[in-house]
């Protein structure tokens, strides 16, 4: 039995609309040829795409014709800590030593008279700031980018939505597509690193980035666990899992937090635990 099934049983009132993993409208699964890569097909679904993509299947899916690109679009969960934790540790060590030299000052671009010294004692605060900022970035990306509704007449925007996030809602049990593959992740991570380096002194931006990188690793590990782990009933992780399951199977336009629900509280997108519709 898949680890998510007992929780689905607990939440069956909340997921009744698509109980049975897409049996609400089984004929809609015939809109694509499952023997062929899906990415080039989904753009033709038009106005049917949004309903189709939120009717999950249990089968693994293929996106690309190219075996190489297909391989780069998938990964195992442990690639995330193996690749990114050493980088986070190295950057933390490097920028701590840079701060310890006592040459880093903030606001020197605007004024030298009122610039602020940034000694090594600020390292924990900057690191935790990056960790905290990641939770907001995670929420904003998930809500406003991953859950944008592409125009039904835009073939390429539908394709873009599917490759970014729609594939995950269509095949939530495909474990090879749960965490961010290293190659596309590298591009996004590099963007944030360059951005922080441009707006902050190198050691300050680098330290914030290192904290954010740890936040990303924690996010991806929690996300994988919410799909394939079995947290104890009543635990914090069980609450997160229940929240995420309801996001997938009943409330796709709310419940955007993965590693924390703090921003769902703040932006009023929390899925109410008590709002379970009754079975007919």
From TrEMBL:
Membrane topology reported for the UniProt record: Multi-pass membrane protein
UniProt keywords, alphabetically: Endoplasmic reticulum, Fatty acid biosynthesis, Fatty acid metabolism, Lipid biosynthesis, Lipid metabolism, Membrane, Metal-binding, Oxidoreductase, Transmembrane, Transmembrane helix, Zinc
Keyword Transmembrane helix attached: yes
Biological process terms in GO annotation: fatty acid biosynthetic process
InterPro entries tied to this protein: Fatty_acid_hydroxylase (IPR006694), Scs7 (IPR014430)
Transmembrane segments: 76-96, 122-141, 178-200, 206-226
Signal peptide: none
UniProt cofactor(s): Zn(2+)
GO molecular function: fatty acid 2-hydroxylase activity; iron ion binding
Domain of life: Eukaryota
GO cellular component, one term: endoplasmic reticulum membrane
Boundaries of every Fatty acid hydroxylase domain copy: 127-269
Subcellular location: Endoplasmic reticulum membrane
Protein name in UniProt: Fatty acid 2-hydroxylase
Species assigned in the record: Camelus dromedarius
